[in-house]
Amino acid sequence: MRLGFVACGLAKAEPVAESVAAHYRRWLELGYCAGMDYLRRNVEMRMQPDLLVPGVKTIVSLAMNFMPARQQPAISLYAQGKDYHDVMRSRMRQLMEDMGLEGRAFVDTAPVLERYWAWRSGIGIITQNGGFISVPGYGPTVFLGELFLTSEADHYGSPLQSSLPASCGAICPALTAEGLDARRCISYQTIEHRGSFPTGFHLGPTFYGCDRCLRANPQFAEAHPTDEPAFQPSDDLLNMTPDDWAHLTEDQYQSLFKGSAVKRAKYDGLMRNICCWLSS
Ligand code: SF4
Predict the structure, then answer these.
(1) What is the pLDDT of residue 130?
(2) pLDDT, average across residues 208-225
(3) Residues with catalytic annotation?
(4) For the chain, what percent of residues have pLDDT higher than 70?
């Protein structure tokens, strides 16, 4: 597709299934959202799309392949290039303009159950291991975005049937039967958490994010490099060594991660991660 989307599906903008809403509420009650308090807010809006966008009739789920062709091994795959929020939102706005669509575009910044809508629209399956959406032919290395449109569609997608086996939650103690316990998740700790790490916390190969459950996902075998330039790492990032990371200055950080999602951790947070990573 010219704008870089690898999948597109339409779902009727109805309230989400009661079983999904109950599962989400239970997940919150267990405290699994850790310090991400925004996930506790606007729960009703998350479950009922017309509370977010009055008059919404159709939810369009779009996916972009983010698998980079080359990788800086210390950074999670999704964050090797430019910030997907910016890249994807501008492509989605372009799509709306090109097609004369009325509505709003969301990329991971509004109370939207994005994987649920992607599944409902038929663009992918929700995998058991880490709750990824996996798009046939691309695997779980995809970003999702949603268009909330106020017009009806002629035809809506249907969820894909999966014959794939449920994969193990045993790969990581953060993956429980009730969902991801963010408190025990390296991704959460290195990206969202502010302050010191819990006692006994160790890092694996990455100091920003964690790809262990993504790579262990059986559908990861379908992932293949995107030719999207925005999601490729710069040569400067590729050339960074452990010694370079240990001596990263704030000016270098600003230039290395200009326009990157890595900035979410801030310089102090990233240096906390790097110190822990070097001593793990
Ligand atoms: S991202 Fe890493 S720490 Fe978090 S659930 Fe997956 S494997 Fe576990």
Answers:
(1) 58
(2) 95
(3) 108
(4) 96
* pLDDT tens digits, one per residue of 153-188: 999 999 998 755 555 456 899 999 889 999 999 999
Cβ < 6 Å from ligand 1: which residues? 130, 172, 174-175, 180, 185-187, 210, 212-213
Residue 99 Cα, ligand 1 centroid: separation in angstroms? 39
Residue 111 — very low, low, confident or very high, per pLDDT cuts 50/70/90? Answer: very high
Domain ranges of the chain: 7-279
- Classify strands 179-180 and 133-134 as parallel, antiparallel or unpaired: unpaired
What pTM was estimated for this model as a whole? 0.95
Q: By alpha-carbon position, which residue is closest to atom 2 of ligand 1?
A: 210
- The sign one gets for the Cα dihedral 81, 82, 87, 89 is positive
Atom of ligand 1 nearest to the CA of 212: 7
